[in-house]
Amino acid sequence: MAETVQNEAGLRELFPEPLERVKLKQLIYLDKYCRRFIALSPFVCLATADTEGNVDVSPRGDAPGFVTVLDDKTLVLPDRRGNNRLDSLANVVANGHVGLLFMVPGIDETLRVNGAAEVSHDPALLAEHAVRGKAPTVALVVHVEEAFLHCAKAMIRSKLWAPETQVERSVLPGLGQMVAEQIAGREISDEDAAEIDAEITQAYKDKLY
User: Fold this and answer.
1) How far apart are CA 13 and CA 197, in angstroms?
2) What are the pLDDT digits (tens) for 28-71?
3) Residue 54 sits in the same domain as residue 140
4) Same-domain status, 85 and 121
5) What's the pLDDT score for residue 1?
6) Which residues constitute the domain of residue 131?
7) Residue 141 belongs to domain with CATH number
8) Sign of CA dihedral 18, 21, 25, 26
């Protein structure tokens, strides 16, 4: 494709220099503001990659503070019950590099944390992250290499937290129907769609932890 950027030098030519504080804000540890942000956050995006550089981003969420800070260089992300594809966990075992984007509802700034992760199945660690009497099977222990607060421009533009921008769930079919039709390559009956969606709704109630 014509006019594509070939290297970082070419990329830098297209943009002005970042402000000095933008360069200096990057930390190599979690300070009091990072810790507070993590304690308030009920949602984080987890980015991982395999050994060939294929990238995956996975949403992770629970009650605020579900990600715990062990010290200023270490945090723990419990792996709550999911679909057992294990995309992120397999990437961590193979590669180990992770990126985390923490969000707090109502706050337009975000927190970015990058580091090296390992998958732990230490019983004592997992017991500390039990919910409703159920401990996670594993947890990610992330050794922090970079941490910095990200400005609010993306959230302001998207109006992500604004009540007036919330989309009615009815604009899309249920998850079960969409996935079933993607697999089948055709539309399914209303009865089959309702049955599959009912199964998923029940799983949301019974299999969160």
Assistant:
1) 51
2) 999 999 999 999 999 999 999 999 999 999 999 999 999 999 99
3) yes
4) yes
5) 65
6) 24-158
7) 2.30.110.10
8) positive
Q: What is the DSSP letter of 85?
A: -
Task: Say what the pLDDT of residue 2 is.
Answer: 72
Residue 116 has pLDDT above 80, yes or no: yes
List pLDDT tens digits, range 167-192.
999 999 999 999 999 999 999 999 99
2 falls within a domain: no
pLDDT at position 3 is 87
Backbone angles phi, psi at 115, to 5 degrees: 180, -165
Whether residue 130 is found in the same domain as residue 154: yes
Q: In the structure, how many helices (H) and strands (E) does the chain have?
A: 8, 7
| Residue 175 maps to a domain | yes
Q: Helices in the chain by DSSP H: which ranges? A: 8-13, 20-24, 32-40, 87-94, 123-127, 153-158, 175-184, 190-206
Q: 164 and 105 in contact (C-beta within 8 Å)?
A: no
Same domain, 45 and 69: yes
Q: Tell me if residue 171 falls in helix, strand or coil.
A: helix
